[in-house]
Specification:
heterotetramer; A: 400 residues; alpha+beta; Dna Ligase, domain 1; D-amino Acid Aminotransferase, Chain A, domain 1; Rossmann fold; 3 domains; six-stranded antiparallel beta sheet; four-stranded antiparallel beta sheet; 12 helices; 24% strand; elongated; B: 289 residues; alpha/beta; 2 domains; seven-stranded mixed beta sheet; 14 strands; 37% helix; globular
C-alpha cells in the first residue's frame, strides 16, 4: 500500500533524508499560516498515484496570494480518480541536476534491488529503456544488510564525487535501512536533486509498504497510517469492501460475480466475457472467509442496481461449502424479511464439506421455499461453463 | 506414479491444533495420506485425530525419521518461523498453506530453502494431491481423478476447476500441485515442471498462471527443453489493470506481468495456449501422441 | 561494562522478559513506600560484581519492619569493595526449579554463544564442569539473527515441554535480540526460575555492554547509564583516572609506572617485579594520548604519597615522542610553579618524533635547569632493563 | 625475504587526510613503503604528500590494480565500514590501526575476511615492518633492524621492545607483525606463524602474548607442527586480576586466559618460554641450529 508523499517524508526525515522545508495544508483556511519566506514555493497535490505532475497536480506559486488561489484550486481537483484532500507546500529549490534512487523487490531475482541513476526525473523509465548503462542496480538478500560503503560505491557509479558522494551515499544507505525496517515494497526518490548551491535534496518521496506486514509496525498506526489508503479512487461499493477487508473492483457489466478465491475470480471474469456476458465486478473472498463476510459480499451485489443476476461458485477448499451455504441462506432470509427483492442467482457448489452444505440448502428450501424461487444451485456434475452460460442467458432474459 | 506425494510418503501438519489444521488433517487421513504426527508449539501432550502433537518439528523428526513433507497451517505472523523450523529440521518439502505472509518473510524462507535444497510450495497454496493416493492441503477431492496429466497452478480455485475440466474431458491427474497465489512463493513453475518431465506417470502437463509477477515468463525457457507437451492457461485477460509500482517496477519488470506478455512467452516456449479452462482437454488430445 | 541488576531489568522488561514485581530503594526513607503486599520479599544489594549472595548481599524479609532494618544494614555495606548504594526489593517467588540462560561472545569461536542449562543457580559453573551434557550451547554469527524456533529448540533440549517451552523459548529469543541491539558482551539470567505455580520468572539479570559501542546507544545515556559504572570499587586515584578516561589500577608498591601502551604497561609491572622492585600502579595511556591526558597521568603519580620514584617510558608509535616531552615539560613547570616537590623520574624515550622530543627537552633543560634536577631521560641506546634497574635503585635510596 | 610487506608491495592508506593517517603516510613513504594512494570519503581531489586522495577504495583499485595492503586510520565508528569496503574491493591484507572498535563490528569484519580469504591485522595494531624494506603502520623505525627473526605480538609497545631486545642481542627481523591489542582481532598468532614457517628469510619466531583472551592457547597446537623454533613471552604474570565475565565466561573459557594457562599451553606446544623480553636473544641463540 502506498503512503502519501507527506507521510513518506515524515518517516524518512527520521532517517536523515534531506527534504525541502514544507507544510501540509488540508484546509484552505490554513493557507494564512504560510509566511512570505516560503515563496517561491511548489504546491503538490497529495494523491496516492504517480504522474500527478503531468495531470496538473503540481503548481508553482511566486507569492502568498498566488499560492492561495492555486491551493484552493488543487483542493477541489480529482487526479486519476483521486480527490485531492491535502496539498504539500514546499520552498522552491533551484535544481541543477536530477538523480534517481529507489529500493524495491525484484521478483525475478527474489532479492532487494537498489536502483540508482544519474538521470532522474519524470522520464526515468524512458531513459532506463534507452540508456541501460545509466541505470545502476545493486542486489541484497532480504536477510542481509548493507554498509555505508555500498551507498558511496553506488553514488560513485552514478558519477558523484566528494561531498555529494558522501551525501548521496548516506541517503542510499538510509533508504535501504528504512525499507527493511518498515517492510517496504518500494521507496522511490525521484528526483533526488542537486541544487545550484550543490546541496542534495530529495524532492519527491514514494513509500509503499507491505500491507500484510502492517501488524508489526505500530508506529504507522500511531501516525494515522492504516490500511485505509486508496479510498480516493474507490467507488462506494469498493469502499464498503475495503472497510470489510476483502478485494472488490467495480466493472461495467450486469452479472454480479460471487466466486471463491482470487484465481477463479479472475478466471470467472474472463469466462463471462468469453461467453458474451458482462461481469459487474471482480471479487475475492480470501481463504476461509467467515459467514458474515460472505453475507456482506452477496449484499454488495444484490444492492447494486446494475446487477441483474448473480453468478456464484464455491469449490470448497480451505473455504468450506457448509459455511458458504449458511451465509447464502442467512442472507436470503434477512433480505426477504427486509422486504427487498431477491435477484436471480445461478450458482455451483462442490468440494470440501459439500454434503453438509447441500443438506443445509435442502432443509432451507423445504422450510422457506419462497427464498429459492430464483436461486439455482448446481453441483459438481454441471460444468462451470454451463453454469456461466445459464447465468448469461438469465441476464439476457431480464430487461435492462 | 506421482510426484512429491503418494500413499507411502510420511507427512506432518504444523498448526494441527488450529481449526483448519485439525479439519484438514482429518480429510487428509481419510483420503489415505500418511500423516504421522502434528506440531503446535506449547501443545505437546494433546492428540488430534489420534496423532501425537509435538512442541517442535525437531522432536517429530526424531520420532519419525522418514518425514518427507510438512504442511503449514499457522497464522501469517508465525508462518516464517514455522517454515524455517521445518527446513532446519531437515524436511525436504514444505507446503505453506497460510496466505498473506509478509513479503520480506517469504523472501527469507525462499532463500533458506534454496540453500538447503528444500522445495517450498506456497504461501497461499491449496497444497497438492496425487489422486487415489494421497493429498496434502485442502484440495476438494471430488474433482481429482487418477490419471496421467500433471497440473500446476498458482491459484487454489483454478487448480480445482482444472481438475474438473480434465474430469469432464475424460482425463485424470498424476499429481496436481498448487505453487501458491501470494506475490512471493517458494518453488516456481519451472521447479515443478522438472518433476513432471521426469515422472513416468505423467504424459502431459497443464500450467495455469495468472496476471502479475513474472513466474510464467520464467517458465517459458524451460518448456522449450521439455519432451512432454505443456498446455498453458492464463487467467486475467479481462482483468482491470492493477496499479504500477512506481518507476522502479517498470525498470525492473520491463513489460512483463501482463496476460499478453505471459501468453507470448509461453507460446514462444512451445506451450499450447488454452483460451478457457474448458478448452484444455481438447488441446491435450491434439498434442498427446 | 556491567549494568546494575535493576538497570538490566529495566532494559530487558522492554523485551518482555518476566521479572518479579520490584522496587529500587536508594534511600532508607523510601522504605515506607513499600506496601505490605510486597512481603515476603527478597532484598538485593545492587553492586557491580557477582557472588553478592555468598557475601551476604541478598536477604529475605518477612515483613515491612523486618525489611526496614535489613535494607538499612545493606545500604551501609561494602561487597567486594563496592559500596551498596541501592537495594532492589522484589516479591519472593516460590521456586520449583532453576534454569540457566546466557548470551555471550565466545572468543574461541568468534561467534555469539547462547548457553542454556536445566541446572541453573549459583553452582552452575561446577555443574558445567561436572556434567558437560547439562550445558547446551548454540552458536550464531554476529551478522545473523535467530528465529523463535531456535529458542523453542533450546528450551526443548533443556527438558522443557508445552507452555514452559513456549515461554522459555520466547525468553531466549528475546535475550538474543537485546544482546544484539545493545552491543552486549554478556546477558545472564541465573536463575531463570520455574515457580511452584509453573510460572517462568527471571530472578537475576546480568547485562554487560561493550563500552566501545556506547556511543550508538543513546537510550542508555537517557537512562543515566554512562561509562561511570565500576566506581564502587575504585580508589580515589582510580576514580580520577576513570573521569579522565584512561585505565589505571593502584598496586601496593612505591614505583610509579608511566608507560606507553597497555601491553608494555603490563610488561613493565612484570619487569619491575622481576628485578626486585614494587610497582605502585598499572596505567595505559591509550594510543595517541593528548598532552593534557599525559599531564594528568604524571600528576596522579607525583601526587601519590606512596610513590617514591616514577618510571617512564615512551616508545613512540602512534603516540609521538614530541608530545610526550611537551607533556612532561609542561607538567614539571606547573608543579614547580605550584611549589610542589618534583619526585625523581627515570625515563626512556625512543621512536617516532624522537628527535623533536629530544630538542624540546634540551631547550627546557637549558631554560629551566631546576626542573630537571632529579629527572633523567635515557635514549634508545640504554636498554629498558637498565632503566628499570636504575629506577629500582633510586627507589631504594629514598627513605620510606 | 619477508612476509606480507616489502619495498615492492603496493599499499594504500584509508583515512589519509586525518592527523595520524597523514603523519604516518609520510613516515611510511620515507621508510620506503610503496604507498600509492589514499582514501577519505568526500575528500577526492585533495592530495596528501603527493598522493592522490580517492572517495572510495574501489576507485583506488581501479587505478592501481596491484594494491595488496591497506591500512585503516579512521575513527572507531567508521572502522568496520572501512574494513569491509577494503575487503569487498579485493584487497588481501587489511591492517586495522584503529583501536576501541566495537566488538560486534570486529566480529563482523573477521567473518567477512575469513569468507573472502583476507588477512586482517588488528584492530589496535601498530602495523608491521620488514626492516630496511617497508613498514605499514606507526612502528618506530629505530628498533627494527634487518635480520632473520620473525616477531608477532598483540601489543604495539611490546612489539617495539621485542625489536629493541633483539637489536641488543645482535639479531634483526625478517618481519615484525602486530596482530592487535583489541579483544577481538582478525588474524591470530597461528595465521601469522604459518607465514613465518614458510618464509625462507625467517629462522625463528618470537611470539609475545599477554593475559586475557585465548589466542595464545590456540597457537600452541600449531607450534607443535612447526620446524622453526618459537620463543614465547607472556606479559601479565604480576597483573592484577581482571573481573570475571559472569558464569558464562567461565563455562566457555574453561580456565584459559591467565598467564599460567598461556605459558603452560605454549610450553606444551614446544615453545621456549622467556621470563623477560631481555631474555629472548639468549633463548634464540640456544635454540637456533
Amino acid at each position: 500500500m502506498r503512503l502519501h508523499e507527506f507521510e513518506a517524508k515524515e518517516i524518512l526525515k527520521k532517517y536523515k533524508i534531506p527534504f525541502a522545508e514544507g507544510m501540509l495544508i488540508r484546509d484552505a483556511k490554513d493557507i494564512d499560516k504560510l509566511t512570505q519566506e516560503y515563496f517561491p514555493a511548489i504546491l503538490k497535490a497529495q494523491v496516492l498515484v504517480g504522474g500527478r505532475g503531468k495531470a496538473g497536480g503540481i503548481l508553482t506559486a511566486e507569492t502568498r496570494d498566488d499560492a492561495k488561489a492555486k491551493i484552493q484550486k488543487l483542493l477541489g481537483m480529482k487526479i486519476k480518480g483521486y480527490n485531492v484532500e491535502s496539498v504539500l507546500v514546499e520552498k522552491k529549490v533551484d535544481v541543477e541536476d536530477e538523480l534517481y534512487v529507489a529500493v524495491t523487490i525484484d521478483r525475478l531475482e527474489h532479492r532487494i534491488a537498489i536502483i540508482t541513476s544519474e538521470m532522474g526525473g519524470i522520464n526515468v523509465e524512458q531513459i532506463a529503456e534507452k540508456y541501460q548503462e545509466k541505470i545502476v542496480k545493486y542486489y541484497v538478500d532480504v536477510d542481509e544488510t548493507i554498509h555505508p560503503y555500498v551507498g558511496r560505491s553506488l553514488a560513485k557509479r552514478i558519477g558523484l564525487k566528494g561531498k555529494q558522494l558522501i551525501k548521496v551515499g548516506g541517503i542510499i544507505h538510509s533508504l535501504f535501512k528504512a525499507f527493511k525496517e518498515f517492510d517496504g515494497t518500494l521507496i522511490e526518490i525521484n528526483p533526488l536533486a542537486i541544487t545550484k548551491n550543490n546541496e542534495v535534496i530529495a524532492l519527491d518521496a514514494v513509500f509503499n509498504i507491505d500491507t500484510d506486514a502492517l501488524y508489526r509496525h505500530p508506529k504507522l498506526a500511531e501516525m494515522g497510517i492504516k490500511p485505509r489508503h486508496e479510498v480516493g479512487e474507490l467507488t462506494e461499493r469498493e469502499k464498503i469492501a475495503r472497510e470489510a477487508n476483502f478485494p472488490y473492483v467495480d466493472l461495467e457489466g450486469d452479472i454480479g460475480v460471487f466466486p471463491g478465491g482470487a484465481g477463479f475470480g479472475i478466471a470467472a471474469v474472463d469466462l463471462i466475457h468469453h461467453f458474451g456476458g458482462k461481469p459487474a465486478n471482480f471479487m475475492d473472498s480470501g481463504g476461509g472467509p467467515t459467514v458474515e463476510r460472505m453475507e456482506q459480499m452477496i449484499g454488495l451485489l444484490m444492492d447494486n442496481p446494475k446487477v441483474k443476476v448473480i453468478f456464484g461458485a464455491r469449490f470448497g477448499g480451505i473455504s468450506r461449502c457448509d459455511l458458504w451455504a449458511e451465509a447464502i441462506i442467512s442472507y436470503l432470509k434477512k433480505r426477504h424479511a427486509d422486504g427487498k427483492q431477491i435477484k436471480p442467482m445461478v450458482m455451483r457448489m462442490a468440494g470440501n464439506m459439500e454434503k453438509e452444505g447441500r443438506e443445509l440448502f435442502e432443509k432451507a428450501k423445504k422450510d422457506e421455499p419462497q427464498l429459492f424461487k430464483v436461486v439455482k444451485i448446481y453441483a459438481y456434475n454441471t460444468p462451470i461453463e454451463e453454469v456461466i452460460k445459464e447465468t448469461i442467458r438469465t441476464a439476457e432474459r431480464i430487461e435492462g | 506414479m506421482a510426484v512429491i506425494i503418494d500413499e507411502k510418503v510420511e507427512c506432518i501438519v504444523q498448526g494441527i491444533t488450529g481449526k483448519s489444521g485439525s479439519l484438514h488433517t482429518k480429510l487428509m487421513l481419510n483420503y489415505g495420506t500418511k500423516v504421522v504426527a502434528g506440531v503446535t508449539p506449547g501443545k505437546s501432550g494433546e492428540e488430534v485425530h489420534g496423532l501425537k502433537v509435538y512442541d517442535t518439528v525437531e522432536e517429530c523428526v526424531e520420532d519419525f525419521p522418514n518425514i518427507a513433507v510438512t504442511s503449514i497451517w499457522v497464522p501469517p505472523r508465525f508462518a516464517k518461523d514455522a517454515a524455517l523450523e521445518a527446513i532446519e529440521a531437515g524436511i525436504k518439502t514444505v507446503i505453506v498453506i497460510t496466505e498473506m505472509i509478509p513479503i520480506h518473510d517469504m523472501l527469507h524462507v525462499r532463500k533458506k530453502a534454496k540453500e538447503k535444497g528444500v522445495m517450498v510450495l506456497g504461501g497461499n497454496t491449496p497444497g497438492l494431491i496425487s489422486p487415489g493416493k494421497a493429498k496434502v492441503g485442502m484440495l476438494p477431492e471430488i474433482a481429482f481423478k487418477p490419471g496421467r496429466i500433471g497440473t500446476i497452478a498458482r491459484s487454489g480455485s483454478i487448480t480445482y476447476y482444472l481438475a474438473n475440466a480434465l474430469d469432464i474431458g475424460g482425463y485424470g491427474e498424476s499429481t496436481s500441485i498448487g505453487i501458491g497465489g501470494d506475490p512471493i512463493i517458494g518453488a516456481n513453475f519451472e521447479d515443478v515442471l522438472k518433476l513432471f518431465e521426469k515422472d513416468d506417470g505423467t504424459d502431459a502437463v497443464v500450467l495455469a498462471g495468472e496476471i502479475g509477477g513474472v513466474y510464467e515468463e520464467l517458465a517459458a525457457e524451460y518448456i522449450k527443453e521439455m519432451s512432454k507437451p505443456v498446455i498453458a492457461y492464463i487467467a486475467g485477460r479481462y482483468a482491470p489493470k492493477g496499479k504500477r509500482m512506481g518507476h522502479a517496477g517498470a525498470i525492473i519488470q520491463r513489460g512483463m506481468g501482463t496476460a499478453e506478455s505471459k501468453i507470448r512467452a509461453l507460446r514462444g516456449g512451445g506451450a499450447h495456449i488454452a483460451e478457457t479452462i474448458g478448452d484444455i482437454p481438447r488441446l491435450i488430445k491434439e498434442n498427446l501422441n
